[in-house]
User: Fold Rab3 GTPase-activating protein catalytic subunit from Carya illinoinensis.
Amino acid sequence: MADGPKNLLEKGAVHLEYSKNLYKVKSELKYASKSYCIEHYFEKTNNDSRVSDWNFNLHELQLCFGVNDFLVIAPQSASGVVLDAPEASKLLSAVAIALTNCSSLLPALVPVHDPSRKAYIGIQNMGTVFTRRFEADHIGTQVPVKLMHLEGLYELFISKFAYSTLDLSVHLFKVNFTMKLTYRTIPYDDDHDLQGTDAEITEPGGSPGSDTHNRVQWDDDCPWSEWYSAEDPIKGFELIALWSEKMIESSLQMAELENDSPHDAEKWILFPTFSQNLSDGSKGNQIGFSSQLHLLIDALDMSFEAPFIEDFVSVENTGPDNLKTSMIIPPPTVIDRVLKELFHEGVRDPDFAKGGHKSSRAIKGAPLQSLFVQFCLNCLWFGSCNIRAIAVLWIEFVREVRWCWEESQPLPKMPANGSIDLSTCLINQKLQMLAMVNPNNVWPPRGRLSQRMSEHGNLWRNIWNDAPALPASEQKPLLDPNREGEKVLHYLETLRPHQLLEQMVCTAFRASADTLNQTNYGGLKQMTTKMEQLYLTMASVLKPVQANRLSAGSEIFEDLRRLCGILEHVEKLLTVAASLHRKFLQAPRLSEAIFSDYYNFYLPRMRTGSVEDKVQMEFDKKQQVRIHERRVISNMFTLPTANQSWRKVLSMGNLLNGHEPILREIIFSMRDRVSGNHYAAHTPMVYQREIETYRMYICGTSNDLRVALSVVSCD
Assistant:
């Protein structure tokens, strides 16, 4: 206390993560054979806000007893509490005397009883003839029915100061009351499971669990759902309803208050619950483009170990020794299904401009709907995306391309006219040429020379002038279609493994980003900026791969793996953005505010070289819900089904669409104006002020109850 907050901070006080303003210092005290720990909790700056305002950054003991700075004195033992009542009383008395002798007004608290009870006793010298005493305890099971209701809790409080012979239900006592109720939506995964269970019951004759295959996933209409289903990053929401302080005069008022709707509360505070997989960095079961691109890069690394694609297909062929049966090749039925999707199903004339970002052309890949892109994306999910599986699918892919050529069939998912796009990868250019020289000719019409070629003395102008004026159909073609087609097929059939994989990596990265870029996430500016940054980073990292500057064991492989990590972060943020957008279509402000908070929380994880212990581990930001947004939030609390076991017995009131609160917190208090001699001051004086003479904090559900009481008395 003598040091003061500033000096304590300089001496190494520890900041408590959940609070912006609370710090702690520890010291040890030995008495005879026993050792005690004294913890001093203090606020860096004076906090004038009252505890009844439900500050979310409070320490539990601040909330329990309505104090700011305080001491906790506990034995250094396995339990950390004083199990012996005489020892607890003696310890607290000794501390109280010591604090009084140094004119300290700090509350002192001692943990007692069994640790599971979270019980405390405490005392505070108020600097006058008054002393405040504290007591807290917890009921873990079999809460009395009376204490499950507001009326019974009100009578519990007034019993602490009213005469025991009075009928508390008919007498009037002016008590200050404020309440905080916490509601929780059904976890979205559980909600789906419950719907499945209901389906099995209500549809006799259906096979058990058959609805699982037809279950609608949250991301069914998201662009990535064609390739994988992502976990909903938002597991649910907690809604905190706050009732402002009011005067209560009778038990009847409390009984009526229990029937109030949460819509009558002064404030609604919303708190999203995010999946742990988002922030804990675990790879686990997370499947997405980034995880599969990791595997594709491994295949690229291995592609330098053999000169021909065929070497990777059969282990009998001459090739690397580590190509064994561990690299699984999917069965023929799977291969046939993939080839059917590539060549015989889907849109014949796709929109090649769809989904492309303005910066995607800096990456030598191919348009999202084109044939080679679809081959690459299928490879990501073909088997385990190993080099053997890719080699098998590539050989079959080239056979199908040759069949289309030899049977004069149009090449699917490729433009049959126009000019060859030189900004794409070489394989896509070759496929474009093959589609254009297919005998079934749509060649671009001949017209006029460009302005540059029409200039005087230009060779092309002379050739143009000397050419006979014949229709294009009667002119001799500049290129022999058959010869050019065979040259393309020869290139595809003799392509070196590393050349194939290099183009696949660039194309797959661009296609993954283009797919994700189609996600609808509303007006979340941070996400738009992050997508633009992703394209620029990809173009920079992939440049050496596009320039064929890659070799076995190159340092570029580590750059590519880091790029996968960046893409993984973007994927996670994108799922958050998409999930929030669809949940708050009618309340976009909340979607933007929650995402902004989560983006700032997640951002340190994206910085390379960040120190892990400096990263906030738990997301704790909350958003106040405006009046016009309450209907949207209320609709999230869907009516519970009969199969929800926790709903079978409703013990508390204040229901929200049939949901009872998961936690109820109440503060009762009484205040009086008192006069006293401030004997701790250098000059004794008499004054009057209002103090909180009785205060009770109650926290619990129908299954447990915690009560903390502070009482001011004149000793």
